[in-house]
Amino acid sequence: MPDHKDVRAILVRAARAEARRDGSRTVEAEHVLLAIAALEDSAAARLLADAGLTESAIRTALNREWEQSLAVAGIAVRMGLLPEATPDRARDPQIGESTKLMLRRAMDAPPKLGGGRFGPMRILVGLLDTDRGRVARTLQAAGVDRAALRTKAAEALAAGTR
């Protein structure tokens, strides 16, 4: 498990490992969300777990979101009926656009929040700072109030929680 005090560990190792496991060529926001949830000893992971967002629950919600998104396009799938992704071990996934946007949002959070330190809670605030995209749809599929969760994360960050 990565050191939760090291943001590079979250983004470079844990989220990249999630992207690789997913068969993705890019590290996207959902991979970062899974990486944060895996940091069981961090306040950000505890906040997610308190909202019912454990790693397992997030994976289930991501699968549900994927099924729903495909259904909108008229494609019916069942997760258990599809083969697992084949990770490309010869290539490291690169930082994707949703992760870049999430990082900008996290950096733009008021400096007073958390004293400007960049840790899991600040990253979580950046992840929750939009009502669009796969993470927002996944939280909706999981029945989680994204705005309320973002408010709790911002309050924790303002209180100095990394």
From TrEMBL:
The keyword Repeat applies. GO terms for biological process: proteolysis. InterPro entries: Clp_N_dom_sf, Clp_R_N. Keywords: Hydrolase, Protease, Repeat. The keyword Repeat applies. Residues 1-160 form the Clp R domain. GO terms for molecular function: peptidase activity. It comes from the Bacteria. Gene3D superfamilies: Clp, N-terminal domain. This is Clp protease.
